[in-house]
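dude i think i finally got it to work??
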Amino acid sequence: MSQISTAAVEQFISRWKASGASERANYQLFLTELCELLGVEKPMPATDKVHEATYTFERPVVFDDGEGKTSTNFIDLYKKDCFVLEAKQGSDKADISEAEKLGAERVKTKTGTATRDTRTWEREMKKAKEQALRYARSLPTTEGWPPFLAVVDVGYCIDLYADFARQGKTYVPFPDPQNYRITLADFENEEVRERLRLLFTEPLELDPSRRAARVTRQLAERLAKLATSLEQTGYTPEQVSGFLMRCLFTMFAEDVELLPKDSFKELLKLYRQNIQYFPSALKALWESMDKGGFAPALHREIPQFNGYLFKDPEALPITEAQLDLLILAAEANWADVEPAIFGTLLERALQPRERHKLGAHYTPRAYVERLVMPTVIEPLREEWEAARTASAILEDSGDEAGARKEIENFHRRLCSVRVLDPACGSGNFLYVTLEHLKRLEGEVTEYLEHFPGQLKIDMTGGYTVTPAQLLGLEVNPRAAAIADVVLWIGYLQWHFRAHGSATRLSNPILREYGNIKQQDAVLSYSDRKPRLDANKQPVTRWDGHSTKPHPVTGQEVPDETARTIVYDYLDPKPATWPEADFIVGNPPFIGDKAMRGALGDGYVDALRKAYKSIVPESADFVMFWWHKAAEIVRADKAERFGFITTNSLKQTFNRRVIQEQLDASNALSIVYAIPDHPWVDSADGAAVRIAMTVGDAGKQAGRLSKVVVEKDNGDEKIISFDESIAKIHSDLSVGAEITSAVSLKSNQSISSFGMMLAGSGFIVTPDEAKALGLGTIPELEQRIRPYRNGRDLTSTPRGVMLIDMFPLSEVELRTKFPEVYQHLSIKVKPEREQNNRKRLKEQWWLFGECRQGLRAALKGLQKYISTPETAKHRFFVSQDASILPDHKLVNIALEDAYHLGVLSSKHHVLWAMAAGGRLGVGNDSVYNSTRCFQTFPFPAATEAQQEQIRSIAEALDAHRKQRQAQHPTLTITDMYNVLEKLRSGEALTPKEQKTHEQGLVSILLQLHQELDAAVAAAYGWPANLPEEEILERLVALNKERAAEEARGLIRWLRPAYQNPQGTQQGDLGMESKKKGKAAAVSAKEQLAWPKNLSEQAQAVQRALQLHERPATAQELLHQFKPVAKAQQPQRLQQINSLLQTLHGLGLLRKTEQEQYVK
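look at this
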């Protein structure tokens, strides 16, 4: 903390305490002197580039007023990546509304500066906060959302609101609803001054979860050491886990003063010299905690804790060294643990096999909030806005009791909301949800306290948000137990911080709500029984993780003695979920190919049977959760759901699950989505890429957030988004609906993945191949061939070869090529013997997938086209037919460079990027043959156009290969990284300049530009079409081609192979060049007019959203279902009153044209 003299602080307070009522005129001076007091940089002077200023007074922001009109407002003080600050208005002049100009009675919410600490003043302060939020929303996307909003009443107070997730949707009082207001007198507190200093310098350091995360990791590491020591003593992991969980909760109870301060630490130290009595003393304490009353071990009364934790008070005998570890853990401040990550780290600490992952990354809290907020909190905050609006209208009309009732009704609603996480793990999503519910409750109670005679909510009775509202399903019993503890720790921690003590909590402290259930979330069954073999013995399989060194090679191979029983599940059915208002969570990341290995054959068979004809067999495990939640929401049994999935969500089989829900008669809509986002897998701490989706019933537009900037910042990335509001398709895109494109017969049977090996022992170096007889044994050159995978194409080729024994039998292989047979029996067979697939186990000398279809398509060709399935840049190369491709290459059996040119053009690359998925830590594009190639409509080019494209494509392919031949370390990825920078106009680094010179990348760019122009001409389109229009035209052309094929006209790409009988071939002349017409826009949705005032406020905001531009009350009237002519004036007055009140609360903005906009 910076040192500031007491005299300087007192002088500042004295000077500004007497500043009077001219706050607005003084705000710049006040803030400048505040910077001097805090010792931080002062705002920069204004320049002629005001729109680029990152730390300045009066930063301009432009608002869209609709119909091509804009207006400019000014942020009082802005600092990029820190805050938007709004100084409280000092004018007594009321806003003049449209109704007032016509002589209507002035709405009382339109007041100027009010007497401080009154409800009217509070309303003005909240209005200023909403104004700051609108300013933040209007900043350029490249600047990101600031983590803070600040509202200053000069000379009196500073209100702080934070959004550390930097989504811009929910800025909450910071650090909590009780302490977010810093008064001038609070400046005497050094901690408050440090808070303000960090606001100006390092605002993210104020994120309590960051500091708590560091503390939590240290505590988990100490617990892990103790757990290891206890297990080495001979206790089971279950005994150790129960013992340590009781210990850690006791430490936490001590630090939040549920137990007397330092009492547990002193008890531990007391038994250092009497270690043999320690278990009895600890057991006595836990028995007292279970029942409450006098605790002999502590010599005083304690509350009743109850809960399942202390039903079994077993305390393990421990050594002095183990007791020292326990004392060391107790010395930490357990009140500072971060529940959002504590569960994950505790699970790793208590699980022997997971303990080594303690140092791995965990899922940052901000990532969790990005899903929890739009799924649960934002809808509730919209209700809260509506309740405040209704309350303000009633209060202004003199109905104070009715105004208070509106707020109380919302509070009851908040305290009855149930949130389900059907894959809750150790409870991080539930905890984050609980905290935000408590934050919102804090705002509600603060609002209520301003009504005369209103008492604070009694924590011993009445309504309050509790862990009972957070429901969880978890198949792992240890994780379920941890989740329950995490929720209670979070709840008690929040209570301790909000109230400073535990005296207001009633007994029992821990209540057995039964809200966390240990059960399978997607499958129920009457029984499970071991699968028996022909000898009536249980069938077993490799456990999936135990290994041993191979006796010859020394490499780790599966330990065939480590077995687990295969079970059959009887009478399988979809599982049922408890009733809830919202569903949110992070189901397991298991792809369809990995399900049998991770879950077992019996389980997967039962799951497929239970969901037959409902969820495709090739869908990922998470889609069973997605389907169930969508069905529940569509049936109006829950309001919203939101899930984390891998970013393969938009790939074919997963997308089918989504599309079915979007196309249903009572349709679902995706109201929020992030197609690709960094994530940390809680199972192993691995960095992965995920998608977030939020579903709601009915047809409505959604908010699509695309990551545009990622900056590393320790355990998480600072992320900026580009947002758009539109209908979100099943592939998590907006605009051209590429998912509607169908596969074309013209493109069938000529694209395929390469060989799936299912064993690395098939790969050999040229020297190893020679030792096996290549060059000396006849016919072996047909069996050991050059081999390429995706990395060989994107980076530097390895120069390896592949042993391909298809279609030889085992006997033929051993007879003809005994050296190869022995090599494969050592290198491949041990791993294959543990494989669950019968053919792979029995035909261990053959590839996992031998691709007979691809072999047939390549027969007779000299060349073919390949592209990596997953790559940062989408490119295509021509490969010699002697090369065997890996399954991570998508291969197209076309040898004409004309096709290579069309595929390499921006038209196909745009299509592939939009139609394919994203995968991996690098957010790389995925080329799916079905969606990217088979749906793509090639142009009907003339011979001359084909020749031009062919010539450029051959030059392009040759250029890249020649540059790599001259510079062996030069990679395709390097060249295209530089090419993208050339396209964007960015400056090249010295390393990139070297790549530019070696790869002659400017020539590469020129070739691509020529190719794009030639392909555009072949389509008959302008060369400079916007990307979105190219996609729209290709979608329309796909539909046109599909209609042709339905009539029997097919434009075969390789007719001699695809259509050897010569059935009707489509006309290869130029097709119509007209852009397909867009589908007619459906009529605007008309809303029903609710009876309840708060629901009317929500309906008006919804109507304004549907209107899609600023509107007057008269214009919004038509968004609602018609009423009788005689009732129209009353309805118009109701809408107008609501709009004015929403504006008065700062929830809407009024344009110069007297229209309202969010």
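Confidence is low (pLDDT under 50) at residues 90-112, 355-361, 457-461, 1067-1083.
im so relieved honestly
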